[in-house]
Amino acid sequence: MRDLAIGELAGTTGCKVQTIRYYEQIGLMPHPPRTSGGQRRYADEHVSRLAFIRHARDLGFDIEAIRQLLALADQPDLRCGEVDQIARQRVAEIDTKIEQLAGLRSEMKRMIRQCKRGRISECRIIGTLANPAFTYWR
User: Fold this and answer.
1) What is the pLDDT of residues 41-53, one digit of tens each?
2) Where on the phi/psi map is residue 15: left (φ > 0), alpha (ψ -120 to 50), or beta?
């Protein structure tokens, strides 16, 4: 059984101390017991939970989705349909982002193709960037 200070937990998980405190404040991480001197002490369960949160964040899940996933993970006898739905929603978000990035890529390529390599005053790239109303990829 581990007995880690917050800095050790941060080092073990690759998560910043401020982030761990934030996760505690918003209720994703349980508040750890404290020593008589007020120092937080973390156990294996904290390491596992923080690893879960970090992995979910790396996959792009937002805080609310992670909160839901953690609540479901804490009830291992439930059916996993709700977990599946949360994951499918994340895939839909990824698909939307891919479409946006593809549009952005196409526009960048178009601007580059239209470049005459002349003067800056005639530059298609600068002209497009100077027009904030132009949002091709959104």
Assistant:
1) 999 999 999 999 9
2) beta
**Does 95 reside within a domain?**
yes
Co-location of 69 and 111 in the same domain: no
Quote helix, strand, coil % in the chain, to nearest 5: 60, 5, 35
Q: Which residues have a Cβ under 8 Å from the Cβ of 117 and sit 6 or more positions away?
A: none
pTM, full prediction = 0.78
3-state helix/strand/coil string of 8-67: HHHHHHCCCHHHHHHHHHCCCCCCCCECCCCCECECHHHHHHHHHHHHHHHCCCCHHHHH
With beta carbons less than 8 A apart as the criterion, state whether 24 and 33 touch: no
In a domain, 134, yes or no: no
Residue-number span of the structural domain to which 88 is assigned:
82-129
